[in-house]
Every structure is written in C-alpha cells, then in structure tokens.
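USER:
I wish I could look at a protein chain and see how it folds. I am handing you a single protein, as its sequence and its fold in token form. As I understand it, each token names a local backbone shape. I hope you can help me see how the letters and the tokens relate. The protein I mean follows directly.
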Amino acid sequence: MDISADRRLILVHDQGGTFGPLTDLRRACDLRCGAWTIAERLALRCAADTTTVVHARLLSLGVLENLAPGERRFRRDGTFLAARLAAGADEQGARTALETPPTDAERGFDADIAAAPWDLTTRLGTTLTEDLPLLAKSAAYGSCVARALRPDEGQSFGAHPILIDPTASIGPLCVIDASKGAVVIAKGVTIRPLSVLVGPCVVCEGTTVGERALLKGSTAIGPHCRAGGEIGGTIFQGYSNKSHDGHLGDSFVGEWVNIGAGSDNSNLLNTYGEVIVRLEADGGLLRTGRQFWGSVIGDHAKLAIGTRLMTGTTIGTGAMIASSKPPAALVPRFAWVTDSADGPKSFRIDKFLETARAVMSRRQVELTADYEARLRALHAAAAVGS
C-alpha cells in the first residue's frame, strides 16, 4: 500500500477500485463525492490534534467516530478502514498499524468504500448528510446560513436543511425542494431565474446554474461550472460546462468538459435490466449493480451540439465527439469522432493542448508544465494502445 500524509491525516492507497478515465489525472481519493472530494472531507473530519490513518477511498465517516488512540478498525471482510495513532507515532507506526493482522474485535465494522464511479453518485444523499456538520470548517461553505427563499427569489419547501451562502445570487421565480434531502449553495454561486433545485443537492463555489435549469436529487455540481438543462443523479468534478438544454442523468463528469446544446444521455435500458459498462478497453465488462447508470465523461472531453450517449457510455479523456449518431459505448482517450467515412481519428496533441490552454484560461487557470507533461504521456500511451 502507498501512503500519503499531512500533519493529521495519513491516507492509505491500495490501488483498488476502477474509475476509468476519471483517474487519468488525479488519484481516486481526489474524486468529488459531494461538497468535497473524498480526501478533502476525510481531512476535515479528522481532528487537528491527532494523527489518523484512513483508507483513501473511505466514504463512511461514521467509522471515524470515537476512534481512540491506538485503536484500529477493519471491515468485516478484513479491509483496513482506519486507525488512530498513539501520541508520538510516526509513519512507521502507521505501517505497523496496517501490517499487523486484525483481531476479531477489530473486524466488526460496516463501511462504504468507493470502488467505481457509481458508488459516489448513488451515495450522494448519505454523503451530503454526513457533510453538513463539516460545512462550518470550510471556506467555501462556512458562511452558509439556513434559510428559506425570499419572495423575490422564489419558493422553497421541505424539512431538510437549505443552506445558502450570503454571496450567492438567486432568482427570481426559483424553486428549492428540500423534501427528500438537503440543498447547499456555496459562496459565489449564481442561480438564474426559473431554476429548480431538488435535494439532496450541492452547488459548489463559483458555479452558475442557468435559466430554467432542473437539478434533480443526488446531484453535486463542482466548483466553477456552468449547469443548465436537466441534470440528475450526477457529479461534476469541477470547471465543466453544460450550459444548455438537454438531459444528463446518473453520470460522473470530469473537469474541463464541454457538453453542447441539446445533448442527451440515456440512463436506463429499455429492458430495465442492470447496466453493464466498460471503463477501459482492456478491463472487461463491469456489472454496476444499478438499474440507472448513464455516462462517465473524462476530463477535457468535448461533446458537440445534439450529441446522444447511450446507457453506460464511457468517454475517454480528451475525446472530441461531433457525430450525428451515438458514439460507441467506450470512446478511447483523445479520439476525434465525426461522421467521416474514415472512422475515428486521434486528437492531435498540439491542437489538443492549444484548446486546453484556451479553455482553462477562461477560468483563470494555467496549464502548468507538469500538467502538460501528464497529458502528453497520456496521449502517447493512448496512441500506443490504439
């Protein structure tokens, strides 16, 4: 196992889970699972005056409750979950905690560990409920106050919390439905007129929700996104655009994605059966265990207007789709998919990087030398595998 640490949190990476293109440019623990990424919320949950060793894909924060110094906790199947180090323990102490076989008493815990993208989306309601006590610790949410919408903003209802940052702009004629889950609106968010937000739902810092948008339950729109049309059961990692009408359901969208006007995806088979997907060309088929699953859309993917995605589609990092018919269920990384009779081609790396710089500069983000090197290596590997 690999270990990454800060002063109070040591994350244990077991290289498990399958996330396809979503982990091309980030670790699995850096995937968004609600108001924050997995790693961010674990760091917020761990006390500043202790050192806690935690499975890097742990979603169930309850496992960390009342964890005493020297105590370890394992799932019933023997998977390590968490340990609190005794005072003065170092990284070697963390390795000892990991490598010592668990006792029967230590193996008595149930916990959710993210193993695939759909584990993050379908758990979002529970995740957001666990996140609510942590909001005050975060700059993006610390100023949020519980309140109903004002008459000039629209109408709100439901028994779950509605938390809105004072810098957020809402309305008029918006609706917030918190009858089935909380709704959280972070600082700098703009909710344009006639929008409907259904909990559980979180809209992260600096995002704009367009006019007449419908954000259905179990949705998290990451920071600095543009969200429009109908979106439900979906997580946006951040910095992505779906500004226009069109449906996107039960999906996970990476960063720097642009989804053109009128694009739609299917998230339910005509047979109403379990959705089976392919996240990697050499990875085989995966059973999702879900009746509803839509798409994985990797970072920097571009979907032209009117794009249609069939149930269980995976779009690779850097792919560009501009075809009148639905693309294949697995679109390779950096594929250039059009109606050309020559079939799919590869997005040239120089042209891709030129576009990436232009897109990122619109959010005042620099394409660094390290990030470019990672993209070039990913492109080269995709070319070899094509």
In short: The chain has six helices and 35 strands. Helices lie at 38-45, 91-99, 117-122, 124-131, 349-361, 369-385. Residues 2-115 form one domain.
